[in-house]
User: Fold EAL domain-containing protein from Bosea rubneri.
Amino acid sequence: KAKAAGRNTATFFDPVMAEEMLDRHEIEVELRQASAEGTLQLYYQPIIDLRTQQVVTREALMRWSHPTRGMVPPGVFIPIAEQSGLIAGMGDWAIAQACLDAAKWPDGVGVSVNVSPLQFREPLRLVQTVKDALLAANLTPGRLTLEVTESLLIEDNKATLELINELRAIGIKFALDDFGTGYSSLAYLSTYPFSQVKIDQSFSRNVNADEASKAIIEAVCQLARRLSMNVVVEGIETEAQRMAVQLLGAQRAQGYLFGKPEPVSEFVKGESRKRA
Ligand code: C2E
Ligand code: MG
Ligand code: MG
Ligand code: MG
Assistant:
């Protein structure tokens, strides 16, 4: 804040900012500890096929249950992990753990893992992490998808495309996450070999009130079909939204209507109940 005030104003001590910085630093120290002690968790949220209602993939979402702060949302701790360099180790762990978990699922569906753009800055490490994870879990590469956001692609360097292609050669897939937010460019869909595009939840939230959201969902679904990609509409919470996006051509969806993110023990229990 002091910086934003400009060159001609004297910097001053802002107690609110000081407290925020202290808080951030504390969170970083505690996050480093949690990561080292192995107390971070992965929850999983189903992605379902709208026609069959079957789970087709589960997305791994990182959870940090803090002893006094409670559940710290990834929207808070991921940026801190990125700024502090912790994301490298946390990201490796997420890929490895997700593969181990998926290998044990009774239904054999795929698993998606979110990957930070910073993990792409260490290509050798990312490739090694993926290979090690698949090998250790004995997971078929085709069951692993990495989710990336547009922020990775705006840098538009050849290295990113090469790395994606190298990982695809191993057999894993890529999804473009949160499509429609940020810098969405249709060119990303043709430049990069995504298997799946995930339409951001801001569009499904308004789908029954807003013609523009409808038009965008419909257009992206059509485009994706032409490019042989799957579409997932994120953030479906109501039956009305489900019906609307299905009519607009969506094949797959994710959202609280179908299932919230939960620890493995919860849905594996549910599965065996259903099967019994
Ligand atoms: P994302 O990858 O787009 O994940 C979807 C987010 O939407 C998740 O939030 C999920 O809990 C939430 N969500 C799912 N269905 C609904 C719904 O019906 N309604 C609403 N309101 N929300 C829904 P979450 O778990 O808080 O994660 C937030 C973001 O943090 C993720 O967005 C992802 O960008 C990031 N993140 C989470 N885990 C990881 C990770 O392991 N690595 C990295 N790099 N980022 C992660
Ligand atoms: Mg995601
Ligand atoms: Mg998303
Ligand atoms: Mg998101």
